[in-house]
Automatic annotation (TrEMBL):
<feature type="domain" description="Nucleoside phosphorylase">
    <location>
        <begin position="23"/>
        <end position="171"/>
    </location>
</feature>
<dbReference type="InterPro" id="IPR000845">
    <property type="entry name" value="Nucleoside_phosphorylase_d"/>
</dbReference>
<dbReference type="GO" id="GO:0019284">
    <property type="term" value="P:L-methionine salvage from S-adenosylmethionine"/>
</dbReference>
<dbReference type="Pfam" id="PF01048">
    <property type="entry name" value="PNP_UDP_1"/>
</dbReference>
<dbReference type="GO" id="GO:0005829">
    <property type="term" value="C:cytosol"/>
</dbReference>
<dbReference type="InterPro" id="IPR035994">
    <property type="entry name" value="Nucleoside_phosphorylase_sf"/>
</dbReference>
<dbReference type="GO" id="GO:0008782">
    <property type="term" value="F:adenosylhomocysteine nucleosidase activity"/>
</dbReference>
<protein>
    <submittedName>
        <fullName>Adenosylhomocysteine nucleosidase</fullName>
    </submittedName>
</protein>
<dbReference type="GO" id="GO:0008930">
    <property type="term" value="F:methylthioadenosine nucleosidase activity"/>
</dbReference>
<dbReference type="GO" id="GO:0009116">
    <property type="term" value="P:nucleoside metabolic process"/>
</dbReference>
Length: 187
């Protein structure tokens, strides 16, 4: 039986996911890269999953509220600022997912840009969605050779009262993520 770990940052992002013939565990990581890293590491030791799926909400610059993106490419916008130091600030998790045959037909694909700040104004960064945890989780999974994918529901347009829109859209996000994920096959 395939062991699946579903991560989400806050309780209001948690949804039940139903993948047949899978043992599914959930972990709330908390907000931010450090908490996400620590809580994911603890869960990996405890549950030893075959795949980690991050679900949650994100802002966007160029897309619409209600859009859902499947992310296999991640950017750390904090480390990107000091890329001249040679620090890894981009991760692509596609190869390991493809090798294992997981989530191959999940679309639409997007780039997730992660940082330790909630963006409220246009950033000098690129990506389809902007969050605060996914890059850290992708990095942990890459280091542990565990397939990782992230599914993000767009709750707000950055620069347009983002925090208020995020709070108002959490119920819509749960419904949208549930509808999206529960109509997919893991393998």
């Amino acid at each position: 039986m395939l062991k699946v770990l579903i991560t989400h940052a806050v309780t209001d992002e948690m949804i039940a996911v139903n993948f047949p013939d899978c043992d599914i565990k959930y972990v709330r990581t908390g907000i931010g890269k450090v908490k996400a890293t620590i809580r994911l590491m603890d869960a990996l030791v405890q549950d030893n999953p075959d795949i980690v799926i991050n679900i949650g909400t994100a802002g966007t610059l160029d897309h619409s509220v209600g859009d859902v993106f499947v992310c296999r490419h991640f950017i750390d916008r904090d480390l990107q600022k000091v890329e001249c130091l040679g620090l890894e600030h981009e991760i692509d998790s596609s190869a390991l997912l493809t090798d294992k045959g997981y989530c191959c037909d999940w679309k639409p694909e997007g780039v997730c840009n992660t940082g330790d700040s909630f963006l409220t104004e246009t950033a000098d960064s690129h990506g389809d969605v902007f969050d605060m945890e996914a890059f850290a989780q992708a990095q942990v999974c890459q280091m542990k050779n565990i397939p990782f994918i992230s599914v993000k529901y767009v709750t707000d347009k950055i620069g347009e009262n983002s925090i208020k829109h995020w709070e108002d859209k959490l119920a819509d996000a749960r419904e949208g993520l549930s509808s999206f994920l529960n109509n997919l096959s893991l393998v």
